[in-house]
Specification:
homodimer; five-stranded parallel beta sheet; 22 strands
């Protein structure tokens, strides 16, 4: 949606993976839009549905039921959140509202509350459209899911792109012009004049409907499901942003609401609902965002969470080039690898790199290694695709593995980005 | 070196990872260039060395000895291989000779014998320099290490770039102009006028020295080593293109002479020579080449070799886009995944894609999965980094896994490149 707002994606219809017509024609699935389920009766296996157009209500029956109610943007209880010009970005309709507002009102100053992935993408979109942009976050850094040294590179990028970063400050409220239109955002660090504001401070699972029917909640208030995507209610399954998942590394219940996770859970749920034995293995928590011409991503655990979960995390940090020095198209990335001191298991990795650095490629390698339970020593022996336009003969994950093995075993190793000692 | 020849890499010195001076200063290693070891005496642990400048010979002692004699270009015993204008491309000196010849003689027509990776890279280099290029190969396709349907895309690219492909034809010899300068290449398909020819039909391990001292040879005549890079001769180790390695999937001895393998073997040898317990796990056989603006790569086993090794290979082929349709910078790739019917293990994958398609990223994912012993079902559950500028919510390896699982289990599945059924 940030790309639709900026115009990178021209037509909002391209963001709809499948229309109701396609569902019907290609898949034989009846999708009732503008209908709301008011109540689930798990005993009778019925749902009470209201047609939002006609207001008519009716009962529908099910054999198995999937709850995929998603998540909603978190809107804090502060003054002025209802002012015109104050937005969240969660549903397609939100992006259309923002785009209309931009076109009709021509706002010049934007404040983004929240420096997470949505905030970062919207910094770029608003800047592309020529707006002045300030971003406010209570954390000490943008992209708080990144460790401090890597987040610093994101902050530097934001500032070099003209984004004003107001960190370690919290939202206090919004002020209007007296006629209901936003004029100012108040924060603990002072007030910011603005014409448009985006609240991007997280989402919450939508669970009321299922919970009212007795579905149990898990971590972060998401619907608790097992490996077969079953809730505690017979015949009721849940998948997507409304449901918990499992951390594939620790085995712990977690809530990582991402499209990539939802899609896998949905497939698992479909199999499970039709009787196949399914054990969804969870996710390692891989996430990536483009922030201007920077790639920012992570997978697995960070040091703090790893320690919480009983590991003894060891980290190595490095700067690397995507290709050999002699091949001109390469560019730079910074990387942090986290392994368990006890056995060397890959617990997580974080990358920040130029868009052309293939930092995303290395992140995927680490994501697979983490999922496979590989160790630092396994990293050293990866057989990755090498040719000068693509990578180094000893590519970044191997060098990181070398450095980590050195740290774990005490063997001296001072590789440079070529893997040379 | 092809990039140095074309001028993409400006200075040949950038291709030297470390000079003798750097070895001495940074690593305390004495490198004697212009010296040849004539003989190894494993009983006395000495080597007989000739100083090629002075002609003087002397004995040097060792505790442990590493043989890293590399490989040489294969030169067939045909008429005219010594003509001026007839080259191989193996050593830095070869590339400097070719570059000088290009600059001094201004050849207009090039024939490349061999359509493997070196041949492909040189097609591009010669075309960049404005030469007419023909490529001759006895195989029915360029890049014979790729399966036919993917190699076809390489052929189409070569032809669209103006490269004349003469396939299923063999080299017969070279003809000169009477004064020792190349003028024509004779093949089973007729003669080709040319001013420069490159023989790129493979390499052979250089093993004479070690073999004379009693070192045993393995597959393809390379020096046989164990997981600790030890030859059968006490105190003698081998690594790099002169030595065999292991196929990490099958466990079989193999010879895959690549820089990426050499570097890992060298590190393993160094550890082993200094007493560390080392078990080099081998390689899965990952290889990639840029052919004009196409990425061509493979990892693991192809169907034929998998069958030879006792597997029951099942393949799925697909075309995919690197990013969602609505994100404009994406491009296309074709992919083939090979798994074992019995258990679904990932045996190999092949990709051909646009340079910007991130086909190399997906190849690395498959390479790690193959090394980790992952299955088609594991592919379906990979947690790869998703954001629209980088990938699809259900990215290519997952869709391939879905398709493969469908084929293995009989479950109907007709995903498109979004993973939608």
């Amino acid at each position: 949606m940030p790309y639709y707002i900026s115009g990178v994606t021209a037509d909002h219809r391209d963001l709809i993976a499948r229309t109701t017509e396609e569902f019907r024609e290609k898949n034989g699935v009846d999708v009732l839009t503008r209908h709301r389920v008011l109540e689930i009766d798990p005993g009778n296996r019925t749902v009470l549905v209201r047609d939002l157009e006609s207001g008519a209500e009716f009962l529908d029956e099910y054999t198995v039921l999937l709850v995929s109610t998603g998540a909603r943007a978190f809107i804090p209880a502060v003054e002025g959140v209802d002012l015109e010009g104050c937005f969240v970005l969660r549903e397609l309709a939100d992006s259309m509202r923002i785009k209309s507002f931009l076109e009709e009102r021509g706002p010049r100053r934007a404040v983004i509350v929240g420096a997470g992935p949505v905030g970062m993408e919207m910094c770029e979109s608003f800047r592309m459209l020529g707006l002045d942009v300030s971003v406010v976050d209570a954390a000490d850094r943008p992209m708080p899911f990144m460790d401090a040294e890597l987040a610093l590179k994101v902050r530097e990028k934001l500032e070099s792109e003209g984004v004003d970063c107001m960190l370690e400050e919290s939202l206090e409220g919004f002020e209007g012009d007296g006629s209901g239109t936003l004029r100012r955002v108040r924060t603990t660090g002072g007030a910011l004049d603005c014409d448009i504001a985006l609240l991007a401070i997280g989402i919450r699972p939508v669970t009321d409907l299922a919970a009212s029917a007795g579905a149990a909640l898990g971590v972060k208030g998401a619907l608790r499901v097992d490996g077969g995507m079953r809730t505690n209610i017979d015949g009721m399954y849940a998948a997507g942003d409304c449901a918990v998942t499992f951390d594939a590394i620790t085995g712990a219940e977690t809530w990582i609401p991402l499209g990539s996770t939802s899609r896998k859970q949905a497939r698992a749920a479909a199999d499970s609902m039709f009787g196949a034995p399914v054990e969804f293995p969870g996710v390692v928590g891989t996430s990536i965002v483009k922030c201007f011409d920077l790639t920012v991503g992570r997978t697995g655990l960070d040091e703090g969470y790893a320690r919480e979960m009983g590991y003894n995390p060891v980290a190595v940090s490095m700067e690397a080039r995507s290709t050999p020095e002699y091949y001109p198209s390469g560019s730079n990335m910074a990387l942090k690898l986290i392994c368990d001191r006890n056995g060397g298991r890959v617990l997580g990795a974080q990358v920040v790199g130029d868009l052309g650095s293939g930092a995303d490629k290395r992140l995927d390698v680490f994501a697979v290694c983490a999922a496979a339970g590989m160790t630092a020593s396994d990293l050293e022996h990866l057989d990755l695709a090498y040719a000068p336009p693509y990578s180094n003969a000893v590519d970044v994950p191997l060098v990181a593995g070398n450095l980590m093995s050195g740290k774990l075993t005490g063997k001296p190793c001072s590789c440079d980005s070529h893997g040379l000692e």
